[in-house]
Amino acid sequence: MSTMSIYIQRRLEKVSLNPEQFNQELNQSIKILISSEIDELAKWFVNFTKDKPHLKNPKNNTAYNRNLLF
Fold first, then answer.
1. How far is CA 12 from CA 8, 25, 27, 41, 48, in A?
2. pTM of the predicted model, to two decimals?
3. Distance (Å, rounded) from C-alpha 51 to C-alpha 57?
């Protein structure tokens, strides 16, 4: 796992109480990551949001629009 992936995951964990901020951070992160890091983030996202339904329903989310986190 890359240092950037770990950093982004920690940032997302910190803002996870605010769905809007979480989605904004997620969208920004996807724009700067390389494909292997996006794959890591996608796996993390699935595990992290299992018990957080408020984070699974983003509107106009880049991650979902780009079919990266299905």
1. 6, 7, 11, 10, 10
2. 0.77
3. 13
CA 23 to chain centre: 7
What are 21's two structure tokens? 């901020």
Which tokens belong to 28?
A: 């920004």
Q: Which residue has the tokens 């992160």?
A: 29
Quick: pLDDT tens for 26-53: 999 989 999 899 989 989 998 999 998 8
Between the alpha carbon of residue 16 and those of residues 2, 9, 25, 56, the distances in Å are: 21, 10, 10, 11
* Chain centroid, CA 4 distance in Å: 13
